[in-house]
Specification:
Blueprint: H1 2-43, E1 45-52, E2 55-76, E3 82-87, E4 94-95, E5 100-104, H2 107-142, H3 148-181, E6 183-185, E7 190-192, E8 202-203, E9 212-227, H4 228-239, E10 250-254, E11 265-270, E12 280-288, E13 299-316, E14 321-322, E15 328-333, E16 339-343, E17 345-350, E18 353-358, E19 365-369, E20 379-384
Parallel strand pairs: 1-20
Antiparallel strand pairs: 1-19, 2-9, 2-13, 3-5, 3-8, 4-7, 5-6, 7-9, 9-12, 10-11, 10-13, 11-12, 13-18, 14-15, 15-16, 15-19, 17-18
Helix pairs in contact: 2-3
Length: 394
């Protein structure tokens, strides 16, 4: 009886140990399954950077080369011939309007003035004599002492003497002008260059070579060439009130090294003819130059407006992905925080931002970074997109 009891006890203990081992194995199998389920839950949400699309004004530019020209250029030429006695300016300096620049020997012209004055005095004396004679004959004719023929001769002599006086007076005025022109002045204010004639040189009226050149440099012209079809688009933009407050389109200027110039230019006018060989038209841009940083003959680049989009929807360039056929797409975040791809139509690329012509609307939230971690229907964990340093933050 005692042996049977001990066998029963050992059987019960063995069964209990087997049950505990089975529970332990089940617990160990349940733990990896639970961990896998938790891991799957965590991987269903993709972490992405998003941006809400807002409309803004975008100007699309053409970057075109151009050559600088002075606003006004005056070639100093003599109006009388003679020997240059003095050069009255410092080369490379600023001169004012009507400032004397050269002095031509005035002695011959002063002598001509004195001679013309003498001729005028003689003519005035002859006029006085003819006038007195006319008055006497007229009185005699009234008393029937002088004939009508004599009176007619007196009138003709008086008219002739008066004409001589007018001629002598005009000649004197001419000689005085020549004396004044012996001092050569600048017609405009600006910077004068090299003196192309020195003291002792012969200045000749009507010469092809100038004595010096004065250029106005406080403002300059930049002449660029743009396709004629763009001109119509630009005029439409201005007509629609898309320019500045004065109705003009500002132009950004870049130096030849690509650095931005501190002042903006303004389109002054466009040429009235199209080059038949290239189909382009010349656009003249007026550029401020208060510190004489720019000089005529330099080459610059102008960012000329091509078109204006007053309410454009723009996205960063890196937000655009393409499908297997190359069509552009954007990944849009839905109201349930899931991802969906949309086909879009791309416009111009401006400062690393694509203008979106269709496919999305204002207020849509798009994925900019992390598109490779999400597919259609994937739940998204979003953070605000932060542009990289040196890129456009708009």
């Amino acid at each position: 009886m005692i042996l049977a009891s001990s066998h029963f006890t050992r059987a019960v203990l063995g069964t209990a140990l087997l049950a505990l081992a089975a529970c332990s194995d089940n617990a160990q199998e349940a733990t990896p399954q639970a961990a896998g389920a938790q891991e799957q839950t965590e991987t269903t949400e993709a972490r992405v950077a998003t941006l809400t699309v807002r409309p803004r004004r975008v100007v699309v530019y053409d970057e075109l080369p151009g050559r600088v020209a002075a606003l006004r250029t005056a070639e100093i030429r003599p109006q009388v011939s003679g020997i240059v006695r003095k050069v009255l300016f410092k080369e490379g300096s600023e001169v004012s309007a009507e400032q004397p620049l050269f002095e031509i020997d005035p002695a011959p012209f002063a002598a001509d003035v004195e001679a013309a004055s003498a001729v005028l005095a003689r003519a005035e004396a002859d006029e006085l004599n003819a006038s007195l004679k006319h008055d006497r004959i007229k009185a005699l004719a009234e008393s029937r002492t002088a004939t009508a023929a004599a009176l007619g001769d007196a009138k003709a002599a008086l008219a002739q003497s008066r004409a001589s006086v007018a001629e002598a007076r005009a000649n004197l005025t001419r000689r005085k002008l020549e004396l004044a022109h012996a001092t050569v002045t600048s017609p405009i204010a600006g910077r004068i260059g090299q003196a192309l004639i020195t003291e002792g040189g012969l200045a000749t009226a009507g010469a092809t070579n100038p004595m010096a050149v004065v250029q106005q440099l406080d403002r300059l012209f930049l002449d660029v060439r743009q396709p004629s079809m763009r001109r119509e688009m630009l005029e439409e933009a201005v007509a629609n009130g898309q320019g500045d407050e004065a109705g003009r389109m500002p132009v950004d200027i870049l130096t030849i090294t690509g650095k931005p110039y501190e002042y903006q230019g303004t389109i002054r006018f466009s040429d009235s003819a199209v080059d038949p060989g290239t189909g382009s038209i010349t656009i003249r841009v007026e550029v401020p130059n208060p510190y004489d940083q720019l000089l005529p003959g330099m080459y610059l680049r102008a960012r000329l407006p091509r078109s204006v989009h007053p309410n454009a929807l723009t996205v960063p360039q890196e937000a655009v992905v393409r499908d297997s056929s190359g069509r552009p797409q954007l990944m849009v975040v839905g109201a349930d925080r899931t991802a969906s791809r949309r086909n879009v139509e791309l416009g111009p690329l401006v400062e690393r931002q694509y203008v979106i012509l269709s496919g999305i609307g204002a207020g849509d939230e798009i994925v900019v970074r992390g598109q490779d971690r999400a597919t259609d229907g994937t739940r998204l964990q979003t953070v605000a997109y932060q542009p990289a340093v040196g890129t456009d933050a708009k």
